Amino acid sequence: MHTSRTTRNTLVFGQIRNVRGIRVGIAGLNSAWSAGEENQKGSLWLGGHWRIQHVRPEFEDTRFNIVLMHHAPGWFTDSETPALGACRT
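Above: the chain's sequence. Below: its structure in token form.
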């Protein structure tokens, strides 16, 4: 867990864990920052491309990666779809 209050550490974090000799990347993307009202499904912004680019270098030598977010992909604008798709690669 990050204790610093910098923008990078409050919007995204990345950690590597060894699980039985397998390097696993764990990324957390803060999706709650753009939410604040009810009925916002399909209209939230994540800034996914920026966030993913900031954690990706940390995960170059991982076997697989896990991305954690508060909101499911369907809550974001269609413009976020390509960035969220990049999480799968």
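The CA atoms of residues 40 and 75 lie 7 Å apart.
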